[in-house]
Design goal:
Blueprint: E1 2-8, E2 13-19, E3 24-32, E4 40-45, E5 48-53, H1 59-72, E6 82-89, E7 100-101, H2 104-112, H3 121-134, E8 139-144, H4 154-157, H5 163-169, H6 178-192, E9 198-203, E10 207-213, E11 216-220, H7 243-250, H8 255-264, H9 267-272, H10 277-285, H11 289-312, E12 318-322, H12 323-328, H13 330-339, E13 359-360, E14 369-372, H14 377-389
Parallel strand pairs: 1-6, 6-8, 9-12, 12-14
Antiparallel strand pairs: 1-2, 2-3, 3-4, 4-5, 7-8, 9-10, 10-11, 13-14
Helix pairs in contact: 1-3, 6-14, 10-11, 11-13
The structure holds adenosine-5'-diphosphate.
């Protein structure tokens, strides 16, 4: 059965088509700069890549090109073969604790939740409608980045703020990256053949850590928005909330200025002037003091959260390193494991040199196993969609 996995951003559309249940990738690609000029798309069919400049005024035009490519390249003979389209939805709040088939009422709810994800949910709705127009027979499915975190207890998800902020305005922890954390949980449960206590570190440009027990999320580091918890590429993560009104008064900033500062000008970028971890690493190698400070702050916060979740889980069986930074770089993994030696973590230095593939990177006598596990959110979306469609 052919299933399409789709991730719509405000000016982009990424897709991957799978033959399920074998999980074979038939085609993947991305449309970029939709509606902003100089748009183009790139596709990859069995390792063969091409990039084409085209005018893309909206997501529907991108879907039209996608459909044409599917037919021209004989990925499908007819669009009827595509049985499901799974859409990544950033914010499902407490309305969705699992993936669902998109009905009119689901679509309305996703729309209602747009105030909690103003850049993402509206883009997803545009994508859902565009695919409905061009592939009307495929069942649309919503896969929420927040759903996996809905198992948190209120002790974890409530903020110590006026209670009415929660009841009237929905202010609570929702988490993010849930599709990735769920995928990793499934991979690890398959590996161990049973549920284990896991601490999953998804550290890319955005970054979050989740504590998992019995296959369920019990706590996660992202919060009401994806700007909580860890220090990220350009997001500050946890800070003292009173810094915000202080800086608004002192530097005459409004809420938009503050939002930009804490989301786009902070994190690694704010401290070192580089948001990409590769640039920070280069600075560290060249002895740049601000890069060294940024790196040390970044690692410390990851270790702090692992320690917190180790206690919350009453011990952990495995720590998993995933996403752009931790899949691809041995040094931060080693430094994190080293700082956890008091918990009995013993790194396997040679194994830790592996990049981007599943690998156990601790010694046999380590009290906690550590792993590199490449995440695959597109595949997770496709699996959930397949399960609902079949
Ligand atoms: P997101 O999905 O949040 O945009 P990714 O998981 O793709 O982020 O991670 C992107 C980040 O991962 C980059 O900003 C870069 O810092 C880091 N990264 C990606 N590839 C590598 C690599 N080969 N070596 C070191 N860092 C990398």
């Amino acid at each position: 059965m052919k299933i399409l996995s789709v991730n719509c951003g405000s000016s982009s559309l990424k897709f991957q088509m799978y033959e399920m249940p074998n999980k074979d990738v038939l085609i993947s690609g991305r449309f970029e700069r939709i509606g902003v000029g100089n748009s183009f798309y790139s596709i990859n069919i069995k390792g063969e890549k091409k990039q084409i400049d085209v005018e893309l005024n909206n997501h529907a035009e991108a879907v039209k090109y996608l459909v044409d490519e599917l037919l021209e390249n004989k990925i499908v003979e007819s669009l009827e073969e595509i049985k499901g389209v799974g859409h990544r939805i950033v914010q499902g709040a407490d309305a969705f604790d699992k993936s669902v088939v998109i009905t009119d009422s689901v679509l309305n709810k996703i729309d209602e939740l747009s105030s909690l994800a103003p850049l993402h949910n509206p883009a997803a709705i545009i994508g859902i409608n565009a695919f409905k127009e061009y592939i009307p027979n495929a069942t649309p499915v919503a896969v929420f980045d927040t759903a996996f975190h809905q198992t948190m207890d209120e002790v974890e998800y409530m903020y110590a703020l006026p209670y009415e902020w929660y009841t009237k305005f929905g202010v609570r922890k929702y988490g993010a990256h849930g599709t990735s954390h769920k995928y990793i949980t499934n991979v690890m449960n398959d590996y161990y053949k049973t549920n284990k206590k896991l601490i999953i570190c998804h550290v890319g440009n955005g970054a979050s850590i989740t504590a998992v027990k019995d296959g369920k999320c019990i706590d996660t580091s992202m919060g009401f928005t994806p700007n909580a918890g860890l220090m990220m590429g350009s997001r500050c993560g946890d800070i003292d909330a009173s810094i915000i009104p202080y800086m608004m008064d002192k530097a005459n900033l409004n809420s938009k200025d503050i939002d930009k500062a804490i989301n786009k000008e902070s994190g690694l970028l704010g401290i070192s002037t580089h948001s990409d971890f590769r640039d920070v690493s280069k600075g560290v190698r060249e002895n740049d003091s601000r890069c060294i400070l940024a790196y040390n702050m970044y690692i410390k916060r990851i270790v702090d959260y692992i320690a917190k979740y180790y206690v919350e889980l009453e011990g952990a069986d495995a720590i998993i390193f995933t996403a752009g930074v931790l899949e691809n770089t041995p040094k931060p993994r080693f430094d994190i494991m080293n700082k956890l030696s008091c918990l009995g973590v013993i790194p396997d230095i040679e194994a830790n040199e592996v990049i981007g593939e599943f690998k156990k990177i601790t010694k046999e006598d380590s009290k906690i196993d550590c792993f590199i596990v490449p995440t695959d959110e597109e595949l997770m979306i496709s699996i959930d969609t397949y399960e609902l469609v079949k």
